[in-house]
Amino acid sequence: MAQHIKKSYLLPLVKNFVEPDYSLAQTWPFGDEHWSTAETEGKLAVDVIETETSIIVITTIAGARLEAIEVFAHNDIITIRGRRDAPIAVEDGVEFIHTECFWGPFSRTIVLPAEIKAEQARAEYKNGVLTIRIPKRKVDTKISVKIIEE
């Protein structure tokens, strides 16, 4: 006899094919806690804004210390990584009843819409929000073409 499966269990599987950022790792029983012994890494949510002269990347990293955040930029790629430590240590007798906040290492690599001047990048971390401003590198050059008739 066929077993009836509730639609709510199928939704994450369908979303994986429809939404490329949706991962089966978010779905029971496929979650990392069932298949991996390595420490998981959080993925930052980012906003990327392009102006005429610069690229601005904004992300929230509430709870991370400034010393624990690293930003790398090269050509048209930027990587943000670091670590957020839980404010309450997991010890004997401590049991998390419900968890939604990610604690531990995080990273995000973003391909930017234009090449950048990485050496002129500026970053500001205020109230848990990291804002990175990077001037765009001018790559358009006018090249004259000489037409030769055969």
Number of domains: 2
Beta-strand content bin:
25-35%
Which CATH top level class of the largest domain fits? Mainly Beta
Instruction: Briefly note the structural class of the backbone.
Output: mainly beta
* Rounded Rg: 22 Å
Largest sheet: 4 strands, mixed
Task: Tell me the overall shape.
Answer: elongated
The percentage helix is 10-25%
The side-by-side strand order for the widest beta sheet comes to 1-6-5-4
**What is the number of beta strands?**
8
At CATH's second level, what is the architecture of the largest domain? Sandwich
CATH fold type of the largest domain: Immunoglobulin-like
Give the termini distance in whole angstroms. 78 Å
Low-confidence stretches: 1-20
> What string gives the helices and strands in order?
HHEEEEEEEE
Tell me the number of helical segments per DSSP (H or I, 4 or more residues long).
Answer: 2
> Roughly what is the average pLDDT, rounded to an integer?
79
